[in-house]
């Protein structure tokens, strides 16, 4: 009550000030609870958004869209997009069975694109264990580093210097 004497306020004013302070504390607590609830709602919405975000397992370029927004996606036909990876390309060659023994997994080889371009180096990824009976050819897959984007997917290449 020393405060009443020093400031000169009445008991009613002090009581009103205490009530106002209590009311302000209650409003602050309510605002903090609303903020906490809003933060939870934001987190819930972010999780829902992540569930609806489509992510490719590889870095690449979308070359074909198989569904439109809002179109039904079924378990039996789950294809949305075709994504191609262009930093590493695979070239498929068919070589005569008699020369297939020259190729083995990991073997480095030269490939040619256009005649005016410098040769490329690729690495044998796969040599088929089967010879195609009608053609007498064996499939050989070669991977190429294409981080510089020099090659286009689907570009024709030839084996050089077998």
Supply the number of helical segments.
2
Strand proportion: 25-35%
* Largest sheet report: 5 strands, antiparallel
Helix and strand pattern: HHEEEEEEE
- What percent of the residues sit in helical stretches (DSSP H or I)? 25-40%
Structural class: alpha+beta
Rg estimate, integer Å: 36 Å
First-residue to last-residue Cα separation: 105 Å
Mean pLDDT metric: 88
Report on this structure.
This protein has 162 residues and is an alpha+beta fold. It is 30% helix and 27% strand. A 5-stranded antiparallel beta sheet has the order 3-6-5-4-7, with no helix packed on it. The longest helix has 42 residues, at 11-52. The protein is rod-shaped, with a radius of gyration of 36 Å.
Topology, please?
Blueprint: H1 2-7, H2 11-52, E1 61-65, E2 81-84, E3 88-96, E4 108-112, E5 120-127, E6 137-145, E7 158-160
What are its keywords?
single chain, 162 residues, alpha+beta, five-stranded antiparallel beta sheet, 7 strands
In short:
This protein is α+β, with helices and mostly antiparallel strands and 162 residues long. Helix content is 30%, strand content 27%.
């Amino acid at each position: 009550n020393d405060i009443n004497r020093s400031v000169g306020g009445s008991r009613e004013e002090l009581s009103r000030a205490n009530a106002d302070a209590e009311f302000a504390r209650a409003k602050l607590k309510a605002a903090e609870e609303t903020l906490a609830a809003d933060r939870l709602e934001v987190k819930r919405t972010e999780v829902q958004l992540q569930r609806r975000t489509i992510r490719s397992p590889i870095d690449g370029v979308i070359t074909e869209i198989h569904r439109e927004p809002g179109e039904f996606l079924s378990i039996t036909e789950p294809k949305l997009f075709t994504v191609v990876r262009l930093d590493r390309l695979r070239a498929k060659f068919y070589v005569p069975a008699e020369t297939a023994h020259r190729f083995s997994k990991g073997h480095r080889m030269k490939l040619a694109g256009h005649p005016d371009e410098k040769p490329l180096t690729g690495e044998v990824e796969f040599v088929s264990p089967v010879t195609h009976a009608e053609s007498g050819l064996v499939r050989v897959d070669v991977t190429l580093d294409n981080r510089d984007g020099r090659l286009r997917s689907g570009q024709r290449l030839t084996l050089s210097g077998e």
